[in-house]
User: What shape does this take?
Amino acid sequence: MAAYTLSILIFFPIVFSIPIFFFNKEKTTLIKTYALIISLITFIISVYIFFIFNPDSGEYAFVERRVWIPLLNSYYQVGIDGISLLLILLTTFIIPLSILASFNTIKNRTKEFYFLILLLEGSLIGVFCATDLLLFYFFWEFILIPMYFLIGIWGSDDRVYATVKFFIYTMTGSVLLLIGIIWLGFLCIPYVGFFSLDLTKLITVTSSLPMDKQIYLFILFTLGFLIKVPLFPFHTWLPDAHVQAPTAGSVILASLLLKMGTYGLIRFSFELFPAAFIKLTPIIAVLAVVGIIYGALLSIVQKDMKKLVAYSSVSHLGFVVLGIFALTQESLQGSVLQMVNHGLSTGALFLIVGMLYERRHTKEISEFGGLMKVMPVFSAIFLIVCLSSIGLPGLNGFVGEFLILVGAFNAPNLHSYSYTIFATTAVILSAVYLLWLFQRVMTGPIENEKNKDLKDVSKLELCTLIPILIFIVWIGVQPNTFLKISENSVKKVLLIYDSAKQRINNNDAVPK
Assistant: This one.
């Protein structure tokens, strides 16, 4: 099994999504249960990989390599390090919870819905495993299909507009990425001897490319990733997609799909073009800080709960991007951990908003108030998740943000404390919009008669939220459980930075 571990993990949910179409469409309980079992087995496989993974080397593990498209020298090549393993675990953890959250909300075309969820899971795992650029692009692009239908079929009233906007934005980024991949393959022919899209091979030769071509390639790759993050000013598709998506779609989009962009920045933009990465850091760092503050300010003025959480994602992922471009051990590990933290906290917030929507069929903040009186357990969970997203010490969000800010403060790659100082203001702003949201929805008198008979959190909803709460506290109290997984992988990435920085300082980094 060890030789095929990653292939089993990738294709298990994809292959076993097909039998769903042979179920009687009237037996919705069977369909839901089957999808949940498949996703849970996938999670168990990923946990098995977690326990047998050796984080000490920092090298790729469970590597598989087989000829895929001989004409292009493209291989089915997969492998994982500590960075990708954490994101795979996040994926396999969030998908079963998204399926569970859909048990009472998806009532039409259930076969198609759960088929697409499992298809999406396998494709996401493929993105985090692929070490051949064409294979990576295949999984990257394939994810658009299930997400397009999840929003377009099961979304809210303006789902068509949101779906088209989401598709156009992300397709634009994908086209730029594809151009970059093809161009890179041709440029490296003189160095490799043939057209190659093997990431591990290209990393060793891209530093020999002329600086101007490195910069052009870096821009093509990075724009594709920044649109997916999304970083300011490429973020406008995100609030519309979140507001219109079903609850499971919003959870998967926020927790998992956005991490494809930040993962791509580390795995491809930096590892392939470190010299260009270093030279263009000030521009991206400014956009990250603007996104952090801009997203937080827009969250404060939102009237729709989903839009508020969506704009908070723009702010929080700005922190992740800042940490990546700071390029210190603390900031980069903080960014990797914060990807996981954001997936947990923001995923939980979307689940909570979805639960309120199912009770009242509205996401307007003004429609609520005083819910603590009738939903005390739900209120307690909501408060913990809000505090987690704010970054309260003892909960997961604090560890990631603190590492990013500490790492960015003295980062030689940023050349200034100002990035960190401005970014820190968003910590205060996040407390403003999240605590104000909690206050308006949960505290005070019940002025709307429709809220007086609302039921507290159900057993099914508890089963969805409690696993996330466990990890929110676990990461906050014992972060080293997860930090040690990525530590040596981050050190290996930073060796590329040190080497590129030395060549730049010696003025012989790349040919002019």
The mean pLDDT is 90. Strands lie at 61-69, 74-80. The two ends are 49 Å apart (CA to CA). The first strand starts at residue 61 and ends at 69.
